[in-house]
Amino acid sequence: MWQVHGTHTIFATQARSPDSHEEKGDLIFTDNPKITLYMRFADCTPLLFADEKLGIVGIAHAGWRGTVEGVATTAINAICRHYGSKAEDIRVGIGPSIGADHYEVGEEVITQVRKNFGADAESLLPKYGAHRHFDMWQANRILLEKAGVQHIEIAKLCTACHLDDWYSHRAEKGKTGRFGAIIALKG
Fold it and tell me: Whole-model pTM above 0.90?
């Protein structure tokens, strides 16, 4: 999947052949145990979804744009609408990504966070010295809780703090690799 920093959703029903074109999107789900889902990350937040009752898994790519556009909410709505899941049956893991302490943001991000998170915005924009930072872990947690998700685990692993284990686009000034997030159903 070619990630585009948005909320386009793909439902995978069969494995993609190596010579087929890569679809664009930031959310992918499947109920097929023969399909393994995979996405690449460097600082953006991986969201991993599982509805064990109905046998559904998924991954979402939540950068700052996707987070403020509500990719987490879009994911829950998509799973519920497409597969008939209930939000309270969905488990979500918030994977390694850049932590708020390293994610200094400018006015564009601050404006979008305030616009889309209302009363929660200031808690998501902590100040470190004179600069605002964005807490994507907590922003996605808030969105998931508002969507009815009760089972959320946050890895609390900052990619910029742990360069020996993860890649960080920001900390490595754009010259970096990507780590993969993989999820599949037991087959």
Answer: yes
